[in-house]
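Below: protein 1.
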Amino acid sequence: MRHRLCGIVLLMQAVSAGCGLSGHEDVDPLTADSIQAPDSWTFSGTTWTRALTPADDDWKVLKVFFEQHPGYADSADLAGEPLVYRATGSDRLFIWTQAAVGGSRWQLIRKQGGRFFQDFGTDVPWSRD
């Protein structure tokens, strides 16, 4: 029994060593591209202007979204502090960007005309519309 256990341990070590990196490969960590967010851009037919210092009113809009959609409160896609953009009145747009294999991905929540909308994609959202 003891010999069998040693054989299994040696086999597992050999397999795991063979599956690991050889030490000669350059592997970059998964990081988001350093993408500069524009001060202003058009999305869904509306021009959005970045709020460099988001105000309480901005966060209140986002709070309402999470109250109406509690399932998103723990979403990893909406983790961290988003970029905040404003349009006219109480219209707001919140964007989260994250590292992804081969670049970056983004999620947004937009309040426009009294309704909430969501969208997502890869690369940069401001290149769309």
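Below: protein 2.
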Amino acid sequence: MPSDFLAKEVRTRGLTFYAENEFIGKAKNAGAESDLAEELQKASQTAAQTELGDSEATRNMIQVAISMKADEYRSAQRQIRAMLRADNQNADLYFALGNLYHRTEDWDSAAAAFAHAVQLAPDFAYAWGQLSLMYYHLEDAPEARTAAEAMLRLQPDTGDGFSYLGLSKQLAGDYDGALDDLHRANIVEPKHGAIYFYDMGLVYTARKQWPTAVSAYEKAVAIGPPRWYFYNNLGIALGKVNRVDDAVAAFEKAKEMEPSRPEPRQSFGAVLCNAGRSEQAVKEFRELLDLVPDWNMARPCLYRSLTRLGRTEEAKQVMEDYKKYSPDHTAW
């Protein structure tokens, strides 16, 4: 949750634990803005003078935080589900669980968790926003829009709300409406501009307006902090305008940031394949299949690249592997 939203939640609800100065200092060092640190300080002073909440629950959440810090998201999910068995009316726990499912890209489970959160706490604005984003990933435009509009009713001047609304309109094919919302998001909260320009790039990509998409993704990267998918989509768009060397540089950055993810490697190999750089394409696709052997979408381009190089026996084996991983395959 962005620090400005977290500050509002702390201001509204307070804390059920005493936040020591060391904790607040760490929050500042982690990038928390001054308004959040100030709200933590105020709420902590109030908590110190009142009866604190369930200390066991606090200790359990500390363990969840430790698991998250170590990227052990499955373990953290199990811990949250155990807490929910004892307290299944806690909207905050459902929100935390939804966030954990989001981290593992389990969109269905994340949507279900956020839906529970807003059912229990209809005024939880950011939970509505996350629910909208999950529906976007599930390509459910009507539900994504409904959730985004609920967020904006609760927080009318939030950039993320307009961003989620814009993404829902993009899904529905209302590209002009989507761009209007995303530009408004950037006006309302320019500090989050990187993600809003990235989202604009998604709209231009859907329209196949590749030069404009390149410009939007480049702005996202320049504003930062960059993410692997900024560079991945920038590389795809650069490939479409035949700036292959620049695309290669973008994909290398994406791989450097997330070496275990198959998506940038697939995009990288496809751009190389389409540009006729067969040797490089073979290298990328071989590395990808070593990483994820059942990533079958890599094999058609790998097959074509090997065929162009005259390596027909290797190409035949790739075809056989494709059939093995897709018994009901159709012609590629």
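The first helix runs from residue 3 to 13.
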